[in-house]
Every structure is written in C-alpha cells, then in structure tokens.
Amino acid sequence: MQTLIKGGWVLTLDDAYREWPAGYVAINGDRITAVGPLKDCSPELEAAADIVLDTRGQAVLPGLVNAHSHLFQTFMRGLADAKPLWNWLKEEIWPFSLAMTEEDFYLAALVGCLENLKNGATSVIDMHYIHTSKANDDLVFEAMQASGIRGTFCRASADQNYQPELMEDRLTILAEMERLARQWHGAAGGRLTLAFGALNPWGCSPELIRAGAKQAREMGLKLQVHVAETQAVARTTIDTYGQRNVEWLADLGFLGPDTQLVHCVWLDEGEMDLAAQAGATLVHCPVANMYLASGAAPVRRWLDRGLNVALATDGPGSNNSQDMLEVLKFTACLQKVTTLNAMVLYPRDVLTMAVRGGARALGREDLGVLAPGMKADIVTVALQRPHVGPVHRAESALVYNANGNDVVNVLVDGRLVVRDHRATLVDEEEIMARAQARVNTLRQKLGKQGGGNDWI
C-alpha cells in the first residue's frame, strides 16, 4: 500500500528541525520513502499512490507518544475531581476497579486506545495493575490490537503495603510476565510489546524489584515505575527503606537506559544525577500532577542534565482525558509559572519531548522523525480553525492552540487508523454505547449517585 500525504505544513522533527509550510510525505507499506517540499513531489509519485491525503491547512508531524497511562481508568473519569492521591485511590480507584469484569477491562482499554489515537498519540504505554483475572491483561492487548495503536502493555504489580485484593506474590508476577511475553511481545508485526512495571517503591519488595528487573532485561523488555509523585510518597520510601526513591532503585539495580521513571515531582538533586548517570527516561505528567495537587516537576533541570524526558497524560482517572495536544500546552505553561521564566521551554522543546523523547523511551530509533526509512506513524492536525489560525509558526500553534479535536488523520505503521476524524477499524458509536451501559451498571452496583441509564 502506497500513501501520499501532500500539501500540509510538514514538521520533520529531525536534528535540523526541517519543515516545509507546503510539503509532502510518501509512504510505502509501513515506512516513509520520501519527504520534502511540495514542489519536489513528482506527478509519478502521486499517480503511484493508492491513497492521497490532501492536508492543505493541516500540520503533518510524527505521532505523539503517550508514555504513561492507565487505560482501565476511562471508566473512572470525574471520580476524583477534589481528592488527593491517597483518597482518590482508596475511595474511588480501588473499589471501582475491583467491581469491573473482564469485559469492562476490554471496553475501557478500547475506549482509551481510541482516545489516544484521536488525540494524536500513535503510541501509548499502558501501566496496568488490576489483575483480578489473568484474562484482564490479554484483553487489554486485544483492545490495542483491534484499535490499531502502537501499544506497550506495562504489567505493573505490588507485593506489599497495598490494597490486599490487588497484591500478588513475586512468583505469580514473574510467571505471568513469562506467559505474556510468549503470547504478546512483538505481536501485530511488532506493534505490541510488553514491559515490566513496579507500581511504586513502597508497594514493591526489594526482592520483586531485583527479580523483575533481571527477568525484564533477560527478555529485552523495558521497565517503568511510579517515582516520587507526591511528598508523601517520597517520605514513605524514606520511612520504609531509609533511602529516597531513586537511591533505593539504583541500589537494587533497577536503573538503566531501559528504565522509565514516572512523575519524579519530588526528586532531589542527587536523585536527578543518579537518573542522568543511568541514562534513564523521566516521564512528565503535568495535567495529572496539577489535578491531584501533587506538585510541579522541575523539567528544565532535568533537561539541563541531559536527561531524556517523555510526556504523558497519566490515567483518565487523574487527568481526566488523554489529550496529548493538551499536555503540550500544560507542559510549557506549568514550567513558566513555576520558574517565572517565560523562555524556560520553547515550543520545539515541548514537541521534541512528546515525540522524540517518547520514541527514545520506547527504545525505537525508527520512530519520532519524518524521514526516509522511518516508521510511518504520522498525525495531521487542522490549523485553519478559529481557535488555531491564522498561523505564524506551526510549532507554536500545535503547542498553544490545537487540541485533540483538531486531529484529522492518524497513521500507524502506514495504515490509516483515523481518517477525517473517524476511527477506521472499529465502530466508535457501538463501543461507546457498550461502555456507557457498563459504567451505568457499575455505578448502580457501587451505590453511586447521579448518572443513570436515561441521560443519553
């Protein structure tokens, strides 16, 4: 299948940050074959294309990477509008997740995958930690496969100091990782992958951290962990182990270039240095950090240390959406207001974190840039709308004006999974109707007020 994207404002995000206000991208199969100014696009190239996308008035850029989410939480939007982290978990997330069925986890994940795609994220890392049934994990993979997204299922767990029904023993965790790796890692032509997740330092024993990291590296998997999200989390780790979060992880051999540290709001300077020395990726979730009043991460200080930084929405239960274009604006503005420096981050800094930083977190050298030979994970975003245009600089319009509703087309592995704002592989209306019906049933089961079955 050959596809030609022509006429849009092409932002390559390559090292030279080349862009063309009128450009083209040619695709053959799952790879980009050519990119450049529209004047260089030959009539023969267009004649050979099976699909031609006229993207005049749109930005064309590599797909964004949502480097941390919890897809099952699409069923829990709006339940934590005025709750800090601990209350949110104990009063909403844990009870609701324990009431969910296997079908619920599939539907919630499918809604989450569609949301990511339609908001410009071609890749998502889903940290999933609700293993009330083994099938839950497989069904999330099935949802990723059905939606067409590039998905990493990060199987996270806790073996101590956590909600009892959600804890697992170490041998079960390792056995399930082996099973999922055999069945899913590299599935769908490499589009689906598995990662090892440690839920947080205080919820994971040193034995689990050591064994999980060892097993993951033997299988070639990435590692992800929540780190220092709140001051209370940082204090709990000190009280439990006598060390700060990253110090503890470093001593246990968890840190490395394959490690993703999520949140990192309350790291001290020494922890940042340890992460930089290890080559770890730090994942910034600005909207969730504000929503739960966790704090503001010092992203500029991370970048100044040479750390790779990726961006993420976090779960829909603490955001409450997965709009990666929205995350761009919050990333820039949160750094400005906390540093009192209007120049602390430029739009291209933010785009680079959201695209190339995410690709590096995934360990993918073939993602994050529009160039020949790279994977054709591409999004197009409408610029000629009253809240976006007239446009002076496309990078500024994307960071400060556009939102997920402006995403027009999405390609993953060269396949159109969203075309003219509509998902192409699944029936959105049918999925949303099923999901709403299940949430209504769960609300009744849990005795929650409001909502109901007759508002739609």
TrEMBL record:
Identify the enzyme class: hydrolase
Q: Which Pfam families match?
A: Amidohydro_1 (PF01979)
Gene3D superfamilies in UniProt: Metal-dependent hydrolases, Urease, subunit C, domain 1
List, for all copies, the residue spans of the domain called Amidohydrolase-related.
60-417
One annotated GO molecular function is: atrazine chlorohydrolase activity
The catalytic activity of this protein is classed by the Enzyme Commission as: 3.8.1.8
CDD domains assigned to the protein according to its UniProt record, in alphabetical order: ATZ_TRZ_like (cd01298)
Keywords in alphabetical order, please. Hydrolase
Q: What PANTHER family has UniProt attached to this entry?
A: AMINOHYDROLASE SSNA-RELATED, CHLOROHYDROLASE FAMILY PROTEIN
Q: Mind telling me what this protein is named?
A: Atrazine chlorohydrolase
Q: Per UniProt, what is the name of the gene that codes for the protein in this document? A: atzA_2
